């Protein structure tokens, strides 16, 4: 059962309570917590997202990077008729999922790997040379680059 109450007027008059309203809108179901993930800083400009995707094969997971949004989704392939299992208890969640990660500017996905039920996605921040800070000489004469072909 979905909560049909509209929290929009209250969102406009509060700051910093977005998570609380999101929790109330989903009914506290915790659906946004599946699958669990970690984000780690490996080096200054290298980050890694690790998503727990136990029970999923690599062809059942889709990773899409578009502009500043990284989307990881998974959908189990339907079982063939001869593969029916008789589960006595099902504790491994293999439901379809979609996780979205907002990426900072100049961050790109460098590689992804699936091993031991963990999907690892490596991210690298590559700031263009023109956007990096550089020193400006004060009152000094700027060096002149001469074209040796003209001489």
Shape: elongated
Beta-strand share of residues: 25-35%
Report on the biggest sheet: 4 strands, antiparallel
Structural domain count:
2
Order of helices and strands: HHEEEEEEE
> Would you state the CATH class of the largest domain?
Mainly Beta
Structural class: mainly beta
- The number of helical segments is 2
Distance between the terminal alpha carbons, to the nearest Å? Answer: 81 Å
User: What integer is the average pLDDT?
Assistant: 79
CATH topology of the largest domain: Immunoglobulin-like
Query: In which order are the strands of the major sheet placed?
Result: 1-2-7-6
- The number of distinct β-strands equals 7
Label the CATH architecture of the largest domain: Sandwich
User: What Rg do the Cα atoms give?
Assistant: 24 Å
Q: Extract low-pLDDT stretches.
A: none
Helix content: under 10%
